[in-house]
Write a structure and sequence with these properties.
alpha+beta; 7 helices; about 50% helix; flat
C-alpha cells in the first residue's frame, strides 16, 4: 500500500514543477491542478521551505515568485552511474513520462557537463541527440527560449510547420507552460494569431 510518506516526494516535485512551468496561476488553481486541499498545500510549502526551496504568491503580479532554489552538490557518483542516469532520462523521454520536465532535462545536462575531459563534449552531443531530438524531437535552444518566455511572462513570435505540406505560418503567442503528451513536448498559451488558447508541438517550431 502506498502511504503519504511515499507520495510526498512526488507531490513536492509536482508543486515545484507547477510553479516553475506555469507561475501565472492562483493558489486555488494550483491546488485544483494537483488535486490537494489548501491545508495540504501549505503543509507541503512549509516542508519545501525547510528543504531550502522558498516561494510566495505575489497578488499584485498574479503569479508565484521563487525566492530561493538552492544548489546542491552532486557527490559520490562514479562515471558509470552518471552515464546510467543520462540513459535513464532517455528512457523516460521515450516513455513520455509526465514527471520528466524541463527541470529534469536540465539536471541531466548538468550531469553530462560535469563529466571529465573529452567525454563531456561527446556526452552532451549524445544527450542532445538521443534525449531531445530522438526522445522529444526538438532543439535545446527552442525549449530553453520558450521556458524563459514562460518564466518572464514574455510574448514570442515564431514560424510553425503544421502537418503535411502546408506552408510555414508566423505565430504570436503568450506561452503559459510546457508539457508532455504522447511522447512529444508541447507549449500551450494564448495565441494572438488565432485569438484563443492553442498548443504547439516543439519539433514543428
Amino acid at each position: 500500500m502506498e502511504t503519504d510518506k511515499h507520495k510526498r516526494p512526488i507531490r513536492l516535485l509536482r508543486i515545484i514543477q507547477a510553479i516553475k512551468t506555469a507561475p501565472y496561476q492562483t493558489v486555488s488553481q494550483l491546488t485544483a491542478l494537483l488535486g490537494i486541499s489548501r491545508a495540504q498545500f501549505y503543509k507541503d510549502k512549509a516542508e519545501l521551505i525547510s528543504l531550502g526551496f522558498e516561494f510566495s504568491y505575489d497578488r499584485s503580479k498574479g503569479r508565484f515568485i521563487i525566492t530561493q532554489d538552492p544548489y546542491l552538490p552532486v557527490a559520490g557518483l562514479n562515471l558509470s552511474e552518471r552515464l546510467s542516469l543520462l540513459m535513464a532520462v532517455r528512457q523516460l523521454s521515450a516513455a513520455g513520462d509526465y514527471i520528466l520536465t524541463y527541470e529534469g532535462v536540465n539536471a541531466a545536462r548538468k550531469l553530462a557537463a560535469d563529466l571529465p575531459g573529452p567525454l563531456r563534449e561527446s556526452a552532451l552531443a549524445l544527450f542532445d541527440d538521443l534525449v531531445l531530438k530522438e526522445g522529444f524531437g526538438c532543439r535545446l535552444e527552442t525549449m530553453e527560449a520558450l521556458q524563459q518566455a514562460v518564466t518572464e511572462n514574455r510574448r514570442v513570435i515564431f514560424t510553425y510547420q503544421r502537418p503535411g505540406l502546408k506552408p510555414l505560418t508566423q505565430e504570436e503567442l503568450d506561452p503559459y507552460h510546457l508539457f508532455f503528451q504522447r511522447r512529444a513536448l508541447y507549449v500551450e498559451g494564448f495565441s494572438w494569431t488565432h485569438k484563443g488558447i492553442r498548443m504547439y508541438r516543439l519539433n514543428r517550431i
